[in-house]
Amino acid sequence: MVAHAKLRYITPKEYLRGEDLAESKSEYVNGVIVAMPGATPAHSAITVNLIAAVRPSLRGSNRRVFSNDLRVRIEAGNRYYYPD
Questions:
Q1: Looking at the domain assignment, is residue 5 inside a domain?
Q2: Of 1, 25, 70, 78, which shows the fewest CB atoms inside 10 Å?
Q3: Does 6 reside within a domain?
Q4: DSSP state of 78
Q5: Closest Cα partner for 43 from 64, 24, 68?
């Protein structure tokens, strides 16, 4: 039988405070902090290429494209992600 450690609930305020000081990014899922793996060179190249391809079509509109360094809050699910 495997024993499971009980995780302490982390508040969003605690997560944000820690994230601002952290050397690596993590996401927040309803009280649990989830470490993010680093991106591979291929993943980074795909992200840059997609931004470069999409951005010109957005000129003149109120839409913008962001890199995956922008943290997004999903209020309904009490979550913070770095989507890309």
A1: no
A2: 1
A3: no
A4: T
A5: 68
Task: Round to whole Å and give the CA distance between 72 and 82.
Answer: 6
The rounded distance, in Å, linking the Cα atoms of 14 and 20 is 10
pTM (predicted TM-score): 0.73
* Per-residue model confidence as pLDDT tens digits over 53-73: 999 999 999 998 888 889 999
Q: Is the dihedral of CA 6, 9, 14, 15 positive or negative?
A: positive
Instruction: Quickly tell me which residue has 């993943």 as its tokens.
Output: 43
CA distance 64 to 51: 10
Residue 1 in any domain: the answer is: no
Taking the CA atoms of 51, 55, 56 and 57 in sequence, report the sign of the dihedral they define.
positive
Q: How confident is the model at residue 1, as a pLDDT?
A: 60
- 3-state helix, strand, coil split of the chain in percent (to 5) is 35, 15, 45
